[in-house]
Every structure is written in C-alpha cells, then in structure tokens.
C-alpha cells in the first residue's frame, strides 16, 4: 500500500477551505488560544467553516477551543481566524499540530498572529497581563520539520527573528495608542498536559522563560519554514506553580482569558488595521 504524497494533507485542507471562501483572500491568519475564541465574534461578514468539513482537521477536545475557521473582515482587512487548536498533548503529531499554520501558508497568507493562554513565570506578570512574545524556547521535544523536507519549506529556517521585529514594534505602538497595557517576554513551550511542578517552573525561569504554555512553538516553527511572519501574544491567566498560592485549574484559565479578551481584541484589531 502506497502512502499519500508528502504535503497531501496541506493541499487537501487548503483546497477545501479555498472552495468555501467564495473568492475571499485573507491576508492575515489569527490563531485563538484557550478562552480567547470570542475574538472571532468581532469579525464582520463572517463565513464559518467547521473543522469537520476540512480534511485532516480534528475537533478540539479542550474547553475553550471551538473548532472552526472564521473568515471575514477585521480592522478593514480580510482575515481568517482559527478558533481552536490541535495540541500535541491530545495525542496529535507535530505535523498535525502544525497543519493549520501550513495550510494558511498554502492559501497565500504571509502573516500569522498567534494568541495563547499561559502561566506567568516572571513575577511581575500578574493574572490578566498581556505579554508580547519576543522569543520562545521549545521544550516540547518535538519539531514539525522532522522528516523529509516539504515543498515550499526551508530545511534549516533561521529562528533569530521567529517573532517579527516590525510586527512587534507595531504591536507596541497600537497598545500605546489604544491604552492597552502590554508586557514583553519569552514564551516557553512544554508538551503538557500537566501543569508544571514548582521545580519545573524554577527551571523555566533559570532558562530565561517569562511565561509557560502548551502551544504556539510548533506552529511558529512551521510558519517560519514557509517564510511567514509571526506575531505572538500570551494572556497570562495565572501565576505558575510554586508562585501561585492556589491550586491551578483550567477554569481559572478560561475566566481570566474571558476578562482580558476585550483588551486583546482591541489590540489585535488595531494591529491588523495598521498592517
């Protein structure tokens, strides 16, 4: 039995989405993290595509991840929002986790904005802080580029500017103009699904991490291999283990993300409008 050609998953997903867009050509893709799905409600004249209608896409199993693409207008530009991620801790391979990012590239999108909910390691970042990601550390033990090189991807992508400097400067400018408090720091991606132990959080801090989470890094790697520009914003939903005086829970993550969602929405809309 012959296996499917390398990249067939991306081609099939992009073809199915393109057929449903009715000629629309989004220029920015936005990935929405845990509890941040309401940002998609700001998209005007929206077309909604359930994951079940896209080859290779999986219905998310994590609360706060809806499982649909939303395409329409935000900030005067055509965007496509990914409302719900595939996480490696759900049992997905690195390839599957990165499939949406690769598909966005196949659609001709050159800018990817990623949001996530994260635990605060930097003690200056309290719950509700928005943190602009200026770099990441991938400790998931996985990489979506492992294996044969895919067409259209760089074999050894330079990750020096994984998070685009110009987009970060624009994000800071918009945050100042819209009076949205915006911190900045390094995001560390771990596999999960357990929250980190206090000793692991100390380890993260020692390595230079300001926030820790279970997403984003694999998507950024795949996007950069395709030449896409990336911008990342973490919502610090809780202090990490050993820093937080209370037991961690996903409900807390959802509650804080929902409260900060309005500010995040204003920030992302402003960034898109000025791109």
Strand order in the largest sheet: 5-8-7-6-9
Ranges where pLDDT stays below 50 over 5 or more residues in a row are none
CATH architecture: 3-Layer(aba) Sandwich
Shape: globular
CATH class: Alpha Beta
How many DSSP-defined strands?
9
Q: Give the biggest beta sheet.
A: 5 strands, mixed, barrel
CATH superfamily membership: Nucleoside phosphorylase domain
Quote the distance from N terminus to C terminus: 47 Å
Q: Return the structural class.
A: alpha/beta
Number of domains: 1
The SSE string, one letter per element, is: HEEEEHEEHEHEHEH
| Percentage of β-strand residues | 25-35%
Query: What is the CA-atom radius of gyration, in angstroms?
Result: 18 Å
Provide the helix percentage: 25-40%
**What name does CATH use for the topology?**
Rossmann fold
